[in-house]
Amino acid sequence: MKKVILFTAMAALLMSAVSCKNTNKGGAPAYKVVDAAQVDLADFPVDEEGYVVLFDGTSSKGWRGYGKDALPGRWTVEDGCLKFSGTGSGEGQTGEGGDVIFAHQFKNFTLELEWKISKGGNSGIFYLAKEVTTKDENGNDRYEPIYISAPEYQVLDNANHPDALLGVDGNRQSASLYDMIPAVPQNQNPYGEWNKVKILVYKGTVVHFQNDVKVLEYHLWTQQWTDMLQASKFSQKDWPLAFELLNNCGGENHEGYIGLQDHGDDVWYRNIRIKLMD
């Protein structure tokens, strides 16, 4: 039985101050980082292992659309999962869809969750994300995509989605740091089966785990990180705004949102929990 719980409690949270950042470094346009109100983690249960439960399988409390004040309609609570019902349109998001975030910014943490995806499906898990706007041709604010400010843990059906064959050395396959570091070994379970995720972020050190196996490690805010960006689609030459934001991802406080991607395909997430390490 499908159970749909729409998230409505966030309506007032987005209407808060906006911090400005004007820059022309490397040709990047001026942008703003939206400083929205956050949910209080004290309102969420803590399990016996000390993890804050961000999604318990029954309620979308705390979740909203990126750049929105509520959960988009294509994200629903179904059979204990936070499910996105895809349109098959790839990155062509509709008004009922879009990426989602948990409305609290995290700094040092261990994030755990599980996912499964439809055949040929694509999605992603973001961390240290910011909500960023620039001006359109009419001078109005528009939200830039979440992935230009946040590293991405790739979620993909490796066997059937063409992105698995792109990039370099498999760095667009499941659990990879998207377009930068491949997950090794590649131990993904196939579409329709559950995969376990653990992402550790601590003072710039980031580790990805897939199905209880460490698959990569890297270090933010270092020369290594800058060099990886320069060799990716987010280079200063090819995408100066993405380069500037990612090179200092998390901003001055080195913190940001956890996000889940709408890439147009059916995807399910469950057992989302986080342990703070501040």
What does this protein look like?
- The structure is a single chain.
- With about 280 residues, the protein is mainly beta.
- It has a single domain (about 20-275), classed as Exo-inulinase, domain 1 (Jelly Rolls, Sandwich).
- Helices cover about 5% and strands about 35% of the residues.
- It has helices at about 225-230, 240-245, and strands spanning about 20, 30-35, 50-55, 65, 75-80, 80-85, 100-105, 110-115, 120-130, 130-135, 140-145, 150-155, 195-200, 205-210, 215-220, 255-260, 265-275.
- The longest helix has 8 residues, at about 225-230.
- Residues about 1-20 have low confidence and may be disordered.
Q: How much of the polypeptide forms β-strand, as a percent range?
A: 25-35%
The total count of strands amounts to 17
CATH-derived architecture: Sandwich
Mean pLDDT: 91
- The named CATH superfamily: Exo-inulinase, domain 1
Shape: globular
Instruction: Write down the CATH topology.
Output: Jelly Rolls
* Series of secondary-structure elements, N-terminal to C-terminal: EEEEEEEEEEEEEEEHHEE
Descriptive tags:
278 residues; mainly beta; Jelly Rolls; 5-stranded antiparallel beta sheet; 6% helix; disordered N terminus
